[in-house]
Amino acid sequence: MRILFITATRIGDAVLSTGLLDHLIRTWPQAKIVVACGPVAEGVFARMPNRAWTILLTKRRLRLHWLELWREVGLERWDMVVDLRGSAFSWLVRAKRRVVMRGGRQPGPRLGHLGALFGLDPPPLPVAWFNAADRSRAALLLAADGQGGEGRWIGLGPTANWDRKVWPAERFVAFFEALVAPGQPLEGARAVILGGPGPQEAAMAAPVLAALGDRAVSLMGSVSLPEAAAVLARCALFVGNDSGLMHLSAAAGTPTLGLFGPSRVGEYAPSGRRTATAIAPGSPALDSMAGLTLDQALVAAQGLLTQGLPA
């Protein structure tokens, strides 16, 4: 069976689509799947089972990226085309079955919309694919100073692709200090700071790194997405702004707290086995993170940490 799977340009949406891919792989274990995605999301699928190859959809003027995709796949015959972009492209290739997501923004959780394409309720949770080499790399990165240890790290994601999604840096620092204080469940834990490449995200993370000093390890822009997933899987907790990294953490099975402004949490809350959100009050039109207090985030984190622990 041959499947063409057209998914997102952004990391977060791409991660959310992995649950559907996992469902397809389990349903048709002999299938060969070609993934078409945006360049920044390529790493999400790098370790995916049954992946034949990945096609990078780099946006072009006049939508010429669709023409480039057709040149690669248009003459093939597909058993199934799954199009999460809601484009007309899926109707221009030969396919026995087409599953096309409706275009435009829809109310309700994004994950539910994805599951509904195949009548899956509840929808399949996202997964994070990484291999033994990624696990070894993660272990090395977190043990390079001789102090690392599985379960004794708190992952922090103080960046986002938009500054209005970003919780103030000083609150990230105070949050970490409170979690690792004497008598707390994560007493003595250290921080691993993750984020994307580039000066904008580096500037967002810089105050947190400066305040935490040698209690933090920076992996800003220095690891692949599979390596980041392996690092996150070793963390006792991840706390971060609404971002692709937050979704990757939840997919890796890490207890994940997503920090949100007053909009879009209903659509993009983290989806995983152990997740929670802390939401700033206020108007969705303003969408400010300034109203999200330290106490709100700590209460949400403590509730997340106690899930599954013996009474």
Automatic annotation (TrEMBL):
<dbReference type="Pfam" id="PF01075">
    <property type="entry name" value="Glyco_transf_9"/>
</dbReference>
<keyword id="KW-0328">Glycosyltransferase</keyword>
<dbReference type="InterPro" id="IPR002201">
    <property type="entry name" value="Glyco_trans_9"/>
</dbReference>
<keyword id="KW-0808">Transferase</keyword>
<dbReference type="InterPro" id="IPR051199">
    <property type="entry name" value="LPS_LOS_Heptosyltrfase"/>
</dbReference>
<protein>
    <submittedName>
        <fullName>Glycosyltransferase family 9 protein</fullName>
        <ecNumber>2.4.-.-</ecNumber>
    </submittedName>
</protein>
<dbReference type="GO" id="GO:0016757">
    <property type="term" value="F:glycosyltransferase activity"/>
</dbReference>
